[in-house]
Design a protein that fits this description.
This protein has 10 helices and 8 strands. The chain is of the alpha/beta class. A 6-stranded parallel β-sheet has the order 3-2-1-6-7-8, with helices on both faces. Helix 6 packs parallel to helix 10 and helix 8 runs parallel beside helix 9. The protein is elongated. 43% of the residues are buried. The chain binds ligand BJW. The site of ligand BJW has 35 residues, from helix 2.
């Protein structure tokens, strides 16, 4: 394991293999609501009630309205100092993977490139029944009407996100697992750590010998595997750990 007595800022500068997993908390300071906790309601529904294949089968128009509301809200949001610090960390680290559960696309806007999206992307759309369109980037644009969206041939379209009970995109999950097993340092940022299989990646990393770092104002089920814990917001901690002018040599 990377020596946990070394100050984290130095360990991050010297490590050759770093993996980072983010959740909704990293985008909270950009104005994107998290799933759980305060402010996690849409028209009286918890997001998880609508992010399911069953909800879509029952009422595709309602589910599309929910995603349209989120697209409209997130279109106004910009990356924050936390997203930017992770893009800097990537640029100065040889072997790096950012694993995000977020569907908002803010990491990409901040300049992150070596990344995988475990739960898809809010800005992509695909035909119902098709495979996830991993990697393709769509425009951050308003949805056409009427809802629910249909293709030219009348096929029902759906957001390219991963709902409860659905498999995660295969390539993304594979790459995330490999990165968790080989990382010297594994950062877990802004996730409640209850949604599987994402949450298990931190445990896999800890078991494989990584120094696990949690950044979250609240304790989570993953706190017990973390060697370093920061009970602060991501946008406050990350710029301290990865200062704007930091380079390998300095
Ligand atoms: C800050 C902050 C600041 C605030 N700075 N921090 C094993 C055991 C039990 C169940 C399962 C299991 N394996 C699979 C399951 C079933 C299920 C699951 O995990 N259920 C659990 C809830 C019990 N998983 C699945 O179904 C997954 N599929 C799967 O495993 O397929 C195989 C399979 C199928 C069927 C049976 C068995 C196996 C799919 C999961 C898909 C999750 N999808 C969603 C919606 C995406 C689309 C959309 O956006 O609409 O993904 S749900 C939602 O939760 C979203 C998120 O990515 C995900 C995680 O949430 P996250 O990011 O952690 O956010 P929050 O809100 O929970 O937490 C925010 C945190 O930030 C908090 O801790 C705050 O304190 C913190 N914070 N401000 C830093 N400023």
């Amino acid at each position: 394991m990377s020596d946990v007595s070394v100050p984290l800022e130095n360990a991050l500068r010297d490590a050759q293999r770093i993996a980072v997993m983010t959740g909704a908390g990293i985008s909270a300071e950009s104005g994107v609501p998290t799933f759980r906790g305060e402010g996690g309601l849409w028209k009286g529904h918890r997001p998880e009630e609508l992010a399911t294949p069953e909800a879509f089968a029952r009422d595709p128009e309602q589910v599309w309205e929910f995603y349209d509301w989120r697209r409209t809200l997130i279109a106004e949001c910009s990356p924050n100092a936390g997203h930017e610090a992770l893009a800097r960390l990537e640029r100065r680290t040889e072997d790096f993977l950012l694993i995000t559960q977020n569907v908002d696309g803010l990491h990409q806007l901040a300049g992150s490139e070596r990344m995988v999206e475990l739960h898809g992307n809010l800005w992509r759309i695909r035909p119902l029944g098709s495979r996830p369109a991993e990697g393709r980037i769509d425009r951050r644009a308003p949805l056409p009407r009427p809802l629910p969206l249909r293709g030219d041939d009348g096929t029902l379209l759906r957001p390219d996100v991963v709902w409860f009970g659905e498999m995660l995109p295969e390539r993304a999950l594979l790459a995330a697992g490999e990165a968790a097993r080989s990382a010297e340092i594994f950062l877990v940022i802004g996730t409640s750590g209850i949604v599987e299989p994402a949450a298990s990646l931190a445990r896999v990393a800890a078991q494989a010998g990584a120094r696990v770092v949690e950044i979250n104002p609240e304790p989570t089920p993953l706190s017990s595997v973390a060697h370093d814990v920061f009970r602060e917001s991501a946008a406050a901690v990350l710029p301290r750990l990865v200062p704007p002018d930091s380079t390998k040599e300095s």
